[in-house]
Amino acid sequence: MIKTSWEGNCFLNFFNNKASLGNVDKTIFKSKSTSPYKLLKSTHDREGRCILPVLHTAGGLVGGDLLEFEVNLEKNSKVLLTTSSAQKVYGSVGRSKINPEGSFSKQINLINILDNSHLEYLPQETIIFANGLYEQMFKVSISETSSFLFTDLIRLGRSSSGESIESGVFRSKFEIMRNNDSYDDWEYVDQIELSKESYVAKSGMDYKPVFGSLIWICKKDFPQSKINKLVESIKKIFNESNNHLSVGILENGISVRFLGNSTQDARKCFFCIWKQIRSVCGFCEPEYQGVWPLQDSMNY
C-alpha cells in the first residue's frame, strides 16, 4: 500500500558547551530529523542563546499527516525556537468518497527542560483552511529552576478571500508539569476546540478569525512582585489595542489570550509582551527575527 501522508519527526537536544562568548556560555545542539522537517542555520545572541528556525518543507499538512517534535534542554542552556513560515492545514472534509468526514492531521510536541534552562518556542501562525482538520498535543516537563515561554496563533480560514473554517476543526491539548519525584506538580493544563460553531458564536469568537495564546511559566521562586509588575505592563499594552485580550496570573507565570482579525496585530502584541518578560527576567531585549514576515514593523 502506498502512503499518501507525511510521518515526519524531529529531535533536538540542546546543551551548554561551556565555550565562552566573552563571559557568556554558548548553547549548541544536536539533531535528528526526517522530512518534511528541515533546520535552518542557527545563530546566537549576546547571552549565548541558541536561535534556531525550523522549516516545514512540504508547504502544509493534509488529512492523516503526523508530525512528532521532541525538544530536550540540558542544564544551563538557553534556546529560542521559531519557524520560518506559517503552518498551513489544508481541507480534508468532503475530499474523499471513501472517507468523506475527513481525517485529522496531527502534531505531537514533547518538551523536556532541565535545571536552570530557558526555552522560548515562538512559531508563526497555523492557518486552518476551509474544512481542514488539525490536532496538536503538547507535553512539557520543566525543572523548578527553569522557564518556558510559548505562543500559539491560529487563523480560521483565509478571511481575506472570504473563506471561513466551514466544517474544519482545530483541537489543542496542553500540559505542563514540573519535574517532581514526590507528586504530580501540574503548572498548566489547557484543552480547546475551535470550529464553525465557536467561530460564529457571540460568546465565542464572534466572527473574529484569529485566536492566540501566550503561556509563560517561570521558575518556582520567581518573585510575585515581578509577576504583578509584568501584568500591569501587559494591561497597558491592552489599552493601546483594538483587539480583545485577557491575562490571567498562574501560580508560577501568566496566561494571555488574544482574539482579533489580524495575525500581524497578534504578533505585535505578543512581541511586546515577550520584551516585558525578558525585562523582568533580567535577560537581553529580544530582536525581531529575520525569518519572520518582512511586512511587520516592530517599532515598540
Percent strand equals over 45%
Low-confidence stretches: none
Oligomer: single chain
Radius of gyration: 19 Å
Distance between the termini: 54 Å
**Fraction of helical residues:** 10-25%
Number of helices: 3
User: Which class of secondary structure composition applies to the elements?
Assistant: mainly beta
Summary?
With 300 residues, the chain is mainly β. It has helices at 196-200, 224-239, 263-281, and strands at 7-21, 24-33, 37-39, 43-44, 50-56, 66-73, 78-83, 87-89, 105-113, 118-122, 126-128, 133-142, 147-156, 169-178, 185-195, 210-217, 244-250, 253-260. Strands 3, 4, 5, 7, 8, 10, 11, 13, 16, 17 and 18 form an eleven-stranded mixed β-sheet that branches.
Topology:
Elements: E1 7-21, E2 24-33, E3 37-39, E4 43-44, E5 50-56, E6 66-73, E7 78-83, E8 87-89, E9 105-113, E10 118-122, E11 126-128, E12 133-142, E13 147-156, E14 169-178, E15 185-195, H1 196-200, E16 210-217, H2 224-239, E17 244-250, E18 253-260, H3 263-281
Parallel strand pairs: 1-6, 5-7, 6-9, 7-10, 8-11, 9-12, 10-13, 11-13, 12-14
Antiparallel strand pairs: 1-2, 3-5, 4-5, 13-16, 14-15, 16-18, 17-18
Helix pairs in contact: 2-3
Could you characterize what this model shows?
The structure is a single chain. Helix 2 packs antiparallel against helix 3. The mean pLDDT is 90. By secondary structure, the protein is mainly β. The chain starts with 6 loop residues before the first strand and ends in a 19-residue tail after the last helix. The relative contact order is 0.11. Helices cover 13% and strands 45% of the residues. It is globular, with a radius of gyration of 19 Å. Strands 3, 4, 5, 7, 8, 10, 11, 13, 16, 17 and 18 form an 11-stranded mixed sheet that branches. Strand 1 (7-21) and strand 2 form a beta hairpin. The protein has helices at residues 196-200, 224-239, 263-281; strands spanning 7-21, 24-33, 37-39, 43-44, 50-56, 66-73, 78-83, 87-89, 105-113, 118-122, 126-128, 133-142, 147-156, 169-178, 185-195, 210-217, 244-250, 253-260. It has a domain at 7-203.
